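Methods, example record. To illustrate the input and output format used throughout this study, we show the complete record for NACHT domain-containing protein. The sequence lines were provided to the predictor; the line carrying C-alpha cells was produced by it.
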Amino acid sequence: MLIIRQLTFGSNKKNVIDFLLRDQNNAGLDNIPQILFFEKELEDREKNFQETIGKQNHFTELFDQYKDFLVKYLNKCISLHSKIEINIVMQNIDECLHNNYDFTNHLEIQQCLQNMKIAFDFANQSLNCLDDWTNNDVNQLKRNINNPNNFIPSSEQLQMKYYDQEKIEHIIESDRWIVILGDPGCAKTTLLRWIVLNFSKKILQNEQKRIPILIRIDEFSSWLNEHPTKTLMDYIGKHTWFSQNYSDDDESFTLKQFIIHGHALILLDGLDEIGNLEQRAKIVELVRKFICEHVRTPDFISGFDETHSRIYENPLKYLKILKIQPPDSITGNQIVIKSRFVGYSLYSLTSPSIRHYSLPLMDQSQAKEFAKKWINEVDANLFEIVSEERVKILSEKRYQSLEKLLQSNSEFNKITPALLSLICTSIFQSIKEFSPESRIEVYDYIVQAAMHIWTNESLMNEFLINLATYLHLYSQSSLIDAFDMESLCCFTLQQHRSFSNRQELHKHAKKMISSLEFYNVIVSAKGLETYGFFHLSFQEYFVAQNLLRDSSREKVVEKILSFSIDFRLHESVCLAIEWISWKWSIDEYEQFWKSFLSQGEKSLFPVGSLFLFETWNHLYKFPSKAIIFIALNNILHSSSDYIRESYLISNLINLSDDLIIQWMNSSLIDNETLAKFLSSLPNKASQFNDNHLQTKLKIIFERIPIKSIGTNNSVMCTQELPELNEFWNHENENHRIMTSSKALLITECLSKLNEENMRRMIQSTLNCELIEVDALGIIKHWLDYRKDKHRRYFALYAALQLIQHGSDEKVLLDIIKEEFVKKKEFSWKHLLESVLNSSNVQAKCLTELLDLIPKDLFYSYLWIHRQETYDSLLEMTFQRINSMNAFLSVFPIKTKDLFLHVFNYFRSQVEKDVIHEQHCSNLISWLIGDEVRHHDEQFCNYVDELLWNQRFPKIQKAILYQLNLMYITHKKFKKNQFLQDKSILYLEQIIRLWNEYPEDFIIDCLITYGNSLYNSNQITEETKTALMNICKTSSSERIVISAEFCLAMSQQSNSAQVNSTIKHTYRMLIQKTLYRKNFKLYRTDDDFDQIRPESEYHHDNYFGFNFNTKQTADDYIHCHSNELMDLFVNDLYDYLEKYKDYELTPDYVEIASKVIKKNREEFCNSIRKSSFGENLFKDKICSYTKKNPTNSQNSMNIYLAFGIIDNQFIDLFQQIHVDSFVQFTLQFDFIKEISDRDVIEKLFELLKMTISEKQFTLILNIFKKLIEINRVSLLELHENLFDFRNISYDDDDEKTKSIRENIIKLLLTLSGFV
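The corresponding predicted structure is encoded as:
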C-alpha cells in the first residue's frame, strides 16, 4: 500500500495498520480509516488501468511509433505560437510620414505595419503564489455567489494573499495541477502559448517528455453545443487555434494515446470566458472529470483526491505521510488552466493539490524589453521602404522617449502589452521627443495615447470620467456590472445629444461598451459581466478630471477641499493639484493655493499645507515663496504635536537652502514659535541616513537663534526659585513627613512652578504619609486647588490627610471621589492605606471612603492592619452582596489575628438560624483565596465540614471554586499546603459516596479532584474503583466525563475500549478546558521516533479519547461544524442563561469567541435558526456581560459577530469599564451594518461624553469601520470632531492632549495622509 510503503520506520505492515487504527484519535491521526480506504481506491485504479490499457508505454516508444505525425504537429505549434500579433492603429498617418520620414505613400506604410508580430520570451517570468485559494476568503466568496443572482460586483473585493514569487519553469517542473489567474490583458494566453512553444522545441531536441495540447475553451464550448454528449477527451485532436488546425492528418487517436499513457501537458485557455453560466458550469464539470480520470500521478492519485494531501503528524513525530511525486517524474499527465480572477470563483477548481498562481503585469524591465522589440520590429518593416539611416536615428530617439516615460512612471509600474503597444504607437507618430517634467504629464500622455483610438474622444472621455467617479465613490471592488455600465453610458450619451427613442440610445451605449471591450486598454471586461479600469491609476486620473471640470476656480477649490478628507479620493486630489500646476496660468495657480490654504483652516489639521508638500516632487511649477511660507506656518502652528513633528522638518528639508533660511528668519520671531519649532526637530541629524538630508538639518540647526532661547525663562530653561532650591536641598530629610515648614514652602512655590518641577513636587508631597499637626491648618488651604488642573493633587493630599486626622467635612470626600473617578494610576496608594489604618478616622467617613474605592481592581492590593476597618468592610459586604465578591480580593488579610477575626465573623454568620448564603459564600471565597494564607488546622477542618454539609450548596460551590483555582494555578505555598492535602482526602471520601450528592456538586468535586492530581497523580484503589463505577453506572454524561478525566489525570487505564463519537469527543474537549493547560499524561523524549509498545500508550487513549491531544474545542468544532455547531450554540445559550458565580463550568463564551474567528457565518446562522433566535440570544449576552464584566471583551465580540451595531450594543458598551483591562480589543471587522440612524447619533454623543481615553479610542475605531462601509461620511465625522479642539477632559492636560492627538491621527489616516 502506498502510504504504508512510505512510512519512515521499519515494522510489520499489519502491526502498523493495527497501531494506526488503535491510535486514530491522536492529534492528526483521526482520519486513518479514510486513508486506508483511499489506499484501496488507488489499488482499484491501478487494476482498472491494467485491465483496460495493459502495459504503460514509455514516451520514447510512443514518439517513435508516431514520429512523422508528431514532427508535423510540433512544427505547427511552433508556427502558430512563436510570435504574438500587434495591430498598430495610427491617427494622422500622412502627417506622421511626411514629418518623420519625408514619405507620402501611406498605403504602403500602413500595409507593412498591419499584423506586425513580435517574438516573446517568458523564460524568466515569475508568478505570484496565491496563499491557499481553497480557504477563507475564496470559500466565503463561493458561498456568497452559489446563486449568481447574489453576486454584487460593487461589494468588497477579494483580497488575495501571496507567498514569494516562483519562476514559471520551476512551477512547471514541480506542480502537476496548475491554475494561472490574472486580470484581463496581462498576457495569460501569451504565457500558455510560450509554454506550448517551449515544450514543442524541447521535444524536437529530445529534452522534454510531454506533448503540449493547447485548447481554447471558447472553441471547445462552441464544439460542445454541436456535440452535447461529448467530453473534453473527445474534443482533443479536433481542437483548433482560432479555427486553424494543428495538422491536416487525423490527430485525435495519436494525441489521446499520449494522454492515456501519461505523457501530455494539457493547457486550457479561458476557463472563465463562457458567458452562459449554465454552459460554464457544464464545462468546469467536464474539466474536473477529465482531471480525475486522466491527470494523475504515476501512483494514480488525482488532483481532487484530498485525502493524500493532508499532513498527519503524531505528537511524538513517528509518522510521515505521503509525498506526491512531482511532474518531472517519468510519467503522469500535467495540466495548466488559465482564467481571470473575477468569474473563476463562481465555478472554480479547488483542491489542496491544485496550485493557484497569478500572473503579474509587466514590470519596468519587461516593459522596456517589449518596447525595444516593438521598435525593432517596426524598423525591420520600414527598412524596405524608407531610408535605413533615417529609421535608425528616429528609432533611437523613440526608445529614449519610452525610457524616460517608463522611468517617470512609478505609479504605472505594472502595464499591459496592449497599453504599452498604444504608447509605442503614440511615440512612433510623435514629431517631438517626449521629455516629461512632472508625473501628471506622463499620466496624460499614456491616457491620450489610448484615447486616440476612438473617433469621438470627448464623448469617451466624459464617459470614463463618470465611470471612474462612480466606481471610486460607490464600489469598494472598483467593479461595475453590465446593467449599471449600460445605464451610466446612456446617461453620458444623453448629456451630449438627444435621441429619438430609448432603443436608439441603448444601441449607441452598447456600441460604446463593445469598443471598450475590443481595444481592451483603459477599461476591460473583468468576467461575470463586470467591468473595471485596467489600472487603478487610470481610475484616479479620470476622477481628478471630474474635480477639475467646473468652470470657476472657487468651485474647483471647494470641490477639491470637500474631497480632500476622503482617503478613497486622496490620490485623485493629488493628481488634480498636479494638473493645476501644469495647465493653469501662474496667477490662477497662485490664487488656487491662497484659497486652498485659507479654507483649510476650517479643518482640524492643515489640509492644504499637507497636500502642497505631498505633491511637491510631482508639481510642474512651484507656488510663490509667500504661499510656501504660509503652508509651513500652518503646520508649525498646528494644535497637534503629531502633525508638527511628522510634517514640518520632513517637508522643510525638501526646500532650497535659501528658502529654509528665509523662512526661519521671517517666522521664528518669538520664543513661543521657536519652542514649537524646536519640539519638531529630531534629536540628531545623524538619524537621517541620507547625506543630503543631514546637510539640510545642519543648516537648520545652525540657524536656530540660541541666544534668544537662553533668555526665555518659560520655554527652555526655568531658573530655579531660591525657595525651591532650599526645598530640593532638604528633600531627603524626613521625606515621609509633611512638616509645617515644608507645607509653607510648598504653598509659596505652587504658583510659580513649571510643568517639570510641578510633577516632582506632587510626587514628593504624596510620599509624605505622615504629617505634623501644625501643618494641617496650612494644607487645608490647598483644598482651594480642587478645580485647578495642575494643582488638584495637592487638594487630594489635603483631603486625605484631614480625614486621617478626624475631619468629616463632606467636601473632603467629594474631592476624593472626583479624583478616584478621573485617575487610572494609583500613585497615592500608600497614603490611602495610611488613612484606612488610622484610628482617628470617623466611622461614617471610613465607610464612605471604602465605598468610594473603585471596584474594578486596577489598584492591586491595599494592606490593612486595623480591625475596625475590616469590620466596616465586612458590614459593606453584607449590604452590597452582589457587587463585593471581586472587591474583597483587593484587601489581603495581613495578620493571623485579623484572619481569625474575619474567620470568627464568618462562623457567626453561618451558625445563625437564618443565614444569607451569598454573603457567606463571598466570605469563604475571600478567606480561602487570600494571598497571605493563614490557614490553620481549625480553619481547614471547618472548611471540610462545610464541604460535607448539604445545607449550604452555595458555600460548597464557593469552597470548591477556590480549591480548584488553587490547584489549577499551582500555587504551592507552605501555609496552604495543609488545606490542599486535607481537602484531597475529603474530596476522595465524597467521590466514594458520589450517589448521595446532587449532580452539580459531584461534578465540581470531580473537576477539583482532577486538577489536584497535577502535582501528585497517586490515587487510592478505593477511589479508582469509585471512579470506574461512576463511568459504568452513572446516567449523567457530565459526571462520567469528569470521572474519566480523573482517571486520565491519575494515569489509570480502562479495560473497556470504546469508539468515540464526534459528540463525545466534543464533550471531552469542552471539559478539558477546565483543567490546567499543557497537562501531559506521560513524559517522553521529543525525539522518540518509533512506535511505542502497547504497555506505553494505553494511558493516552481510552474512553475513545486521546487526553494528550493538542486539538482544542474550537478547532474540533471548526472541523466538524456541520455536526456540532447547533449543539455548541445550544450549550452556549444554556450557559448564558444559567450563569452564576462560583460555577465550575467550561467558559463557553471564551470558546465561542474563538469559534467565530473561524466559523462566524455558521455560528450566526445556527443561532438564527435556533429555537431562541438572534434577538433573545443577544439579550442573554448582554445580561451575562453585566454579571461578568471581566469577560466582556469576548462577549461583546460575540455580539459583534452578527455584523450589526444597534442601540443595545451601544448601551452595553457604555457600561463596560474598558480601562480595567490591560488590552481590550473588539472585532470591528465584523461590522457590516447599523440598525438605524439613531445609533450614529448615540455614538457621537458617547464620544462627547466619554472620559476614558481607551473608550474614546474604541469609539473612534467604530467610526473608522462605519466610514469604510459607507454608513458615516468623513465630512460628518470631521464636522462632529471639529468642536473637540476646545474640549478639556477633567482639566487633565495629558488626557486631553492624548485624545486630541488620537483624533488627529485617525483623521489623517482616513484622509489618506498616514
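Annotations derived from this record:
The CA atoms of residues 561 and 599 lie 8 Å apart.
The radius of gyration is 40 Å.
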